[in-house]
Amino acid sequence: MNDLVIPTGQGLYCPAGDFHIDPWRPVERAVITHGHADHARSGSKRYWGAAPGLSLLRERIGYGAGIVPLAYGQRVEFGPVTVSLHPAGHVLGSAQVRLEHQGQVWVVSGDYKRDPDPTCTPFEVVPCDVFITEATFGLPVYRWQEPAEIAREIHEWWQDCKAQGLCAILHCYALGKAQRVLAELMRYTDETVYLHGAMTKLVKLYRDAGVAMLPTDAIGNQPKFFDWKGRLLLAPPGAGGTPWMRRFKPYSTGFASGWMRVRGSRRRQAYDRGFALSDHADWPSLLRTITETGAKRVLPTHGNTEALVQWCREQGIDAAPLKTEYEGEPQHDAAAVADSEDPVANPAG
Amino acid sequence: MRQFAALYAQLDATTSTSAKLAAMQRYFADAPPADAAWGLYFLLGHRLKRVIPPTRLRDWISQLTGLSPALVEDSYAHVGDLAETVALLLDARLDRIAPDQASAPPLHECVALLQSLAGADPDLQRDTVFAWWQQLPFEQCFLFTKLLTGALRVGVSAGLAARALAAQSGVDVAVMQHRLMGEWQPSAAAFTALQAVAPAQQSPSQPYPFCLAQPLDDAAPDAVGPADAFLAEWKWDGIRGQLIRREGQYWLWSRGEELLNGRFPEIEAAAASLPDGCVLDGEVLVWKDGAVAPFALLQTRIGRKAPGKKTLADAPVIFMPYDLLELDGVDVRAQPLQQRRSALAALCDRSAFTPSPTIDAHDWDALRAQREQARQREQARQRGVEGLMLKRRDSVYGAGRKAGLWWKWKVDVLTIDCVLVYAQAGHGRRSNLYTDYTLAVWSGDALVPVAKAYSGLTDTELVAMDRWIRAHTLEKFGPVRSVEPLQVFEIAFEGIQASPRHKAGVALRFPRIARWRQDKPAAEADTLDNVRALIGR
């Protein structure tokens, strides 16, 4: 039997149903897993995406684009192929794509995590024959601590900054991570957090979707000689080291990303503090998910695929890395890898 | 162990010098002296001998975690540090015994235990290491394994550690630096002696901290004062050294605090002519036919611990003193240079040494002319003199780079001393040989890359460096390796300009390696401020 999903120059493609999943070039029909820029690109004729993430997709793809919202679990036919979207727990409205054709079930995970996240619907295990899984953190060294614990560390750092008269600037990805930080910090405070311009709209969309977060205000709304001491600011990683940072001096910088688990990336990027908070599955979650899906064949894509393939084979599971465009990034260039957790992270402004 | 692990985490978590100083001061004050002694030992950059080979540690971690050797290998390749890989892999085990903070023994006991493991039966080694790996919390597990591999390096300079201990104990920084020079065995008593405000008995081998020069601004040398306030000497292209004659013995220290005894029998023989209780600062040079020989010739002597007859004949060395730090057992560093120089001349008259000549020039134009001559001499002889040294006649002998005392006025080629941070394999003839270097200078405690250099070393040096790079790789990023920041290279270049496109904010034109500075510790490489100051030359 032919493969239900194959990699092509445009992206992952389902020949039987004639549609693409997260294509990186314009196509006729695109099923989108979530709103990050490496998965949701504009220019295609027609889109399908999970209803809870509709506003984010519109923000990313454009308000004029034709997007068909699908409720989680709702079935739709692409020719002989039945397609449905299921929660991936990655960011608001993120989805796995389930494809069924002639009794065979494939699941494309998109990006996912298993850890609790108050900003999105938890991951749902979808039994399948073939599992195309992400492998961003596909190495046994990656295991996340409890998000509440990381949030506590972030809060402590902020309070330390306050005590030392510093402004606390936490760099994090604008879509997903920023909102998760704002939601997790509600355990410890009700203070206002100040946002970089690239984040304000996305935070508003999360609020509109009913996600509870700390009160926020735009950095740009503050008067010229505003006292930034003791304030917590969220900014995308791309803002680090730019002249934009000057007005907040003296400050301490932090970065919330799974890559911060490893000391080398922490040091190379010259942030004062690293907080290993990730929206991707850690190693134990990857293994657990593969096991729970019952998949007999696993195709890890983007990230550290080799170790995951190795592990699957050791367990007697048929596995091979699936070449996608993400593989074009040098695997061991730490800077490139660190940027690729979410390339959407460097918007201008 | 807990306190030191906490200190390590604090130092790791900040790029601020003052925060690092404060953290070290707190540690020195709070930790028991027996532990603080070892903490200081590591902060100063010393390491333990490797107890267990890394390959064996990799086998063990595979056994303990149940991960296949291939997965351990993948993890290590990604993390780039074996101890950190071990700590992360153990931390990722869900069935790990709950770490008990209180159970980690004090640092000095930990060190003693490690040292006792060195020659022990492999099964005993394994059982002991397993027991520790199982119970230590993450940070301590990381440090413990670092100690096992003998690779513990803390991200502070020895100078900063000395400053912290000086501030904590109330001892003058220069005195503290002096106490920390030379050989030093960590113990509670030694640590307490270091902190004592009153001077303690010192080993006769102990050198003084070297007085270092700053580069002179070529555009306006007279900004530092009238020319006749300075004593001018040639800036020799040799190895800076300190020759100590005490208690009938002699010691020769390099500026990198390496004991050079045994390498230069000529100097040893000459030292016998010195009276007891004197210390000289000067230059080790190859001297042939009444003149200094190119540095390349001296390099044939640097690595030789016991040179043979032919080497001695081909590259005879001398020690050319230019300062006197101790006479008749009395520290004379506080005397003005003029006075020290006279005493040095008198001393040389009755011993086998010849002092470095002073240059007669009473105004800046005359000095410039002398420097021009030095340049011509350099061209004629390929090397030997790098330029002029200008030292204030009334200056004391300072510890370290004291502003305004000593100036170096190098000949026209611009040079900076950089630290090797990344290496990449070359191409063609140099393929699979790590010959392409990324070099960095200091910005605070961080190293900022300023140049890439591909040429300048001899084939022999390249092969030696390749071996060194492979043995001192911190991390691999595809074809690029980051290495321990230990090797210093003098980089010559044709011009420099401000460049917003480069991380350091400067771009060098035609950088190449002028020299492998094996005599220079990484901490003494140039700073980004020094480099920026060269813009516009």
TrEMBL record, chain A:
UniProt superkingdom: Bacteria
Region (Disordered): 326-349
GO MF assignments: RNA endonuclease activity
Protein known as: Putative mRNA 3-end processing factor
Organism of this sequence: Hydrocarboniphaga daqingensis
